[in-house]
Write a structure and sequence with these properties.
elongated; mainly beta; 8-stranded mixed beta sheet
């Protein structure tokens, strides 16, 4: 239909898209190079074409051209020269990689037409970002870049991988959000983006994934908001891991339709309300899922559904089993089984190791001669002369006292995994950076003492959700912005708030008046302005109230003299 000059028919004028198939037959005989035809308007199909002196070669299909472009862009964007590359006979470069590849090359699999169907670059030192061209790999079925350092925003073009059944990107360093477009993927069965630094909410569009979708892993990110009820439409799900995020609100009733689950984890979030009773009857869940540890470290109330109560408390290693009945993947052992290590102890090792590394552990002043804290954590029990750590009888760390021990660096997000920690003291060090919102996941913590450090940024609003906290000290620590109103929602056992000598601005939140058991409120030496809130007259237990050296105006409310029962201090 188009009478196109060779300038137009050149394959280069169509590439860098997601086009598939071959060129129209009339194009196929055209040369592969670009003619310089200038601005000529062709009056016929002969146009500005000049017969070449030699027989032209046939153009390859558009799909292979796009593949070369995509593979080359992926190599460049993820720092290809620094990959750990173990294919001796085949080289991946900025021009891509040629199919077929040698049988010893496990990084790439090709089909008989020369299309790449599988990429496995797990733990191969990738960094940089995913390029938008990734969506041009129209034949890619399995994409695995687990355990690397790929960052940046996940491109929405990933959703163009319409042949992909498995996309595995756990343990990376992405920023930004989960693209809503991923909900349009036509063939996807597994989507793994766990432990990858993602923020914002879980897109409701993921509930529209294909009717073959079975495995969603978004654990250990910074996801907020509620769990979308739309996920209940994914009725073939065998794995749903949303643990270690900042998800809030109620567990959606609609998830009772997930009758094939073998692995369901929502622990270590900010979820509230009760576990829907319908989970016990609608969900036909294996013992792996019914384990109460998969729900802990939230603000959930009430009892487990009756059907959960008889299940074991330890974690079974059920792998990828899909349970066909409520007996699920549990097989009665032939002998008394050893109890699998609790998820809590595994998380504790990860958290303690991350804390050691992030706060420059090798330079700590460490005075426990018999016990060593390393990148692998510290083992409980510890010797009686080790005052830095206290453990309970189950091997969980309940107290960390590293006051004045030369800590520096930053607090890692993994700090929130210390589910049994009750007393955390890092006063008088040089720990900096933003206080991670994951600190709010320390639901057993009664005392958090971090005075005299070098933090930057703000006080996380999530700290207002801490369930057991009694003392929160972040004085003389370089904090800016405002005092979160959410701190007024702290537990009814909260007694001691110290935010003195920072760079806090704005007004004193009236919501702090709800903390009626406060004995200490130190807001002195900041940049606070506005009036003293009348509501603080409800703080009838104060023994130490200091707001000196700010920019406060107005009068001292007369009600402070009668409502507040303040000590001479």
């Amino acid at each position: 239909g188009m009478c196109i000059s060779p300038c137009v028919r050149d394959k280069k004028n169509f590439n860098s898209n997601a086009l598939t198939g071959a060129f129209p037959e009339e194009f196929s005989a055209e040369p592969e190079h670009l003619y310089d035809c200038g601005e000529v308007t062709c009056s016929s199909c002969s146009g500005c074409y000049v017969e070449p002196s030699s027989e032209p070669s046939v153009a390859p299909s558009m799909g292979l051209l796009n593949q070369d472009i995509a593979l080359g862009a992926f190599y460049d964007a993820t720092n290809g020269p620094n990959w750990i590359w173990e294919c001796t006979s085949d080289q991946w470069t900025s021009a891509g990689i040629s199919c077929p590849v040698a049988s010893d090359c496990k990084a790439v699999t090709c089909d008989s037409n020369g299309f790449v169907t599988k990429i496995n670059l797990s733990s191969k030192n990738l960094s940089g970002t995913l390029p938008t061209e990734i969506g041009m790999l129209a034949s890619l079925q399995d994409f695995n870049i687990n355990t690397n350092a790929v960052g940046g925003q996940i491109p929405s073009e990933l959703a163009l991988l319409n042949s992909a059944t498995k996309v595995r990107m756990n343990f990376n360093a992405f920023t930004g959000t989960i693209p809503t477009e991923l909900g349009t993927m036509q063939s996807i069965q597994w989507l793994w983006i766990g432990d990858s630094n993602l923020g914002s909410t879980i897109p409701t569009e993921l509930g529209q994934l294909s009717n073959t979708f079975t495995d969603l892993r978004l654990f250990k990110n910074k996801l907020t908001g509620s769990i979308p009820g739309e996920l209940g439409a994914l009725t073939l799900l065998t794995v749903l891991r949303l643990d270690y995020n900042l998800l809030s609100g109620n567990l959606p009733e609609s998830l009772n339709a997930l009758s094939s689950l073998a692995n369901f984890q929502v622990s270590n979030n900010l979820l509230s309300g009760t576990i829907p009773l319908s989970y016990g009857t609608g969900m036909c869940i294996s013992p792996c899922v019914r384990d109460k540890k998969n729900f802990n470290s939230n603000a959930l109330t009430g009892a487990f559904p009756e059907e959960f109560s008889a299940e074991p408390e330890h974690l079974y290693d059920c792998g990828e089993v899909t349970c066909s009945s409520c007996s699920g993947c549990y097989v009665e052992p032939s002998s008394e089984p050893s109890v699998a290590p609790s998820m809590g102890l595994l998380n504790q090792d990860i958290a303690l190791g991350a804390f050691y590394d992030a706060t420059n552990g090798p330079n700590w002043i460490w005075e426990c001669t018999s016990d060593q804290w390393t990148s692998a954590g510290i083992s409980c029990p510890v010797a009686s002369d080790c005052k830095a750590v206290t453990c309970d009888s189950n091997g969980f760390v309940t107290k960390i006292n590293l006051s004045s021990k030369n800590l520096s660096g930053t607090l890692p997000t993994e700090i929130g995994m210390l589910a049994s920690l009750q007393d955390f003291n890092i006063n008088t060090n040089a720990v900096g950076g933003q206080i991670p919102s994951e600190l709010a996941l320390l639901n057993s913590a009664t005392k958090v003492r971090m005075n005299f450090n070098a933090f930057t940024g703000t006080i996380p609003t999530e700290l207002g959700t801490m369930q057991s906290i009694q003392w929160l000290w972040i004085g003389d620590s370089n904090l800016g912005s405002t005092i979160p109103t959410e701190l007024g929602q702290l537990s009814n056992t909260f007694t001691d708030l110290r935010l003195f000598k920072n760079k806090l601005t704005g007004s004193i939140p009236g919501e702090l008046g709800a903390l009626t058991l406060l004995t200490v409120l130190r807001l002195d030496y900041n940049l606070l302005s506005g009036n003293l809130p009348e509501s603080l007259n409800a703080l009838s237990s104060l023994a130490n109230f200091q707001v000196s050296n700010n920019l406060l105006s107005g009068t001292i409310p007369l009600s402070y003299g009668t409502g507040m029962c303040i000590s001479p201090c």
